[in-house]
Amino acid sequence: MTAITRRPIIDGSSNTDQYVWQLRSMYQRFRFWNPSIALQYDPAIYEKMLEDPVVRQALVARQGRASGDSWRVDPPRNATDDEIVLAKLVEHGLTGLRKFQMSRFLLSAAILRGVRFGFVEGCRTYMEFPNVEGLPDDHEWWIPNRIRDIDSRRIRARPAKSGEDPVWEYSEVDRASYLSPTIINTTGSGFGWVPLDTRKVIRAAYDDDEGRIFYGRGLAESLYNIVYARSVVLTEGLSGVEKWGQGVIVGHVDKSQLNNSEQTTDDVVDNMLDTLDRMRARNAVVVDKEDAVTVLWPDGAGSSMVIDFLTYLDNLITRLIDGALLPSGGGDASVGSLARGVVEEETIQKLASQDRRMLEDALTEGLIENTFMAFNQETIVTLGLDRCRCPKMILQSDARPDPTMMIDVYTRALGAGVPISADDFYEKTGIRKPEDGDEIIQPIVMTQDGTGAPFRGS
Q: How many CB atoms neighbour CB 364 within 10 A?
């Protein structure tokens, strides 16, 4: 493999036709190389990034928000009765997925890598659908039970016929030793790249523009230089810990004593250095009363520079991944934490919503449309649901909103004459719905003359 096969589409040319020429060249090759710059320089870059605690913490938080706390399957907008029935069927059919939360978390790693794959495993069985009235239970269904993670580095894409999607292939794995999988030598006799059944594949891609050749553009492309710089600063900082902690010992040599000695000045200096090293190792210094030894303590400028630079790089990593610094305790202290917290919380929620929409689209296409509905097409036709539009996967965050804010919203809505669902009110505000026999505190509307109490007991 030559180096140019892993370079980006545009390679330093100001000619606008260069993009077209190189894109055409990419499509004429026997396979599409992943254009990742980070992966080009280090095939193990993802593992090295995840070993960095700052990167790991920020990514776990973001992937956790993207994967959602719970899920459901909704019919399309303006759904017909049949489409509502189909959505219920799909939702019930997916309830048997094992470790679905972890599968969604792994698929959301496309945020870092650009693309992530999951292979859907399942089996045919007869299943009752209790949430659908009038549905016979004598139909056989293909029910998914697991989404197996596939590392994108053992999946490749090659061009297909004009106008068609690329053909995806994957390198075989010894299934007999799956607990410790070993990639089989794809260049050996009898082994090779196996076509991937796209009906069972979930492909989550992040920032999947044309120039990325179906591999997406993950945050690793931007994190690579920052993480590398951070490792250099840490190395230099650790090498200076001993110097900053023990100071610099200065030994004074009296050259006048060398007149009647066979030793040179260098010999005396070397002897003193060896002696001081041994004494420093024992944390004690013993010298002749005529010798002069002093210790110079650093002013802290070196250590302060390292710490400041590390803080700067940590903030860059956190802001790039999370979109904000306040949740991790960073940021400029001169800016009000309350005001900045409101803005950054809104930024984080928008970013999480965007990530969830990306993952929802991947699950809707790969898990529902290409897998569940494709493998159950015959049964769906038998039930007369084949003309229905595809339902959609919805990922939800179970984070409870601020009760004070929600009470203010409901108060304003009621004051404007907007009807409010009581169940929705109790759920969003966290107030327990009174039960029979409970002592009730009833609100009293204040009159114009100011009489009346805000609350009274029942």
A: 20
> What stretch of H or E contains 21?
helix 17-27
263 C-beta neighbours (distance < 10 Å), count: 12
| Helix H or strand E segment including 51 | helix 45-51
CA nearest 310: which of 236, 370, 369?
236
Tokens of 373: 């509905």
**Tens digits of per-residue pLDDT, 187-202?**
444 456 777 777 888 9
Write the DSSP string, 260-274: T-S--HHHHHHHHHH
**What residues have CB less than 8 Å from 431, skipping those under 6 apart?**
403, 425
Which H/E stretch holds residue 177?
none
List of residues 6+ apart from 322 with CB closer than 8 A: 58, 61, 62, 328, 348, 351
241-to-92, 421, 437 alpha-carbon distances in Å: 59, 63, 68
Q: Residue 78 belongs to what H/E stretch?
A: none
Return d(Cα 276, Cα 263) in angstroms, integer: 19
DSSP 32: B
Which residue's structure tokens are 């000695």? 261
3-state secondary structure 104-128: HHHHCCHHHHCEEEEEEEEEEEECC
Which residue has better confidence, 273 or 207? Answer: 207
Count CB-CB contacts under 10 A for residue 230: 21
Helix segments in 323-436, DSSP class H: 337-363, 374-375, 377-382, 403-415, 422-429
Please give the model's pTM, rounded to 2 decimal places: 0.72
Over the chain, what is the mean pLDDT? Answer: 77
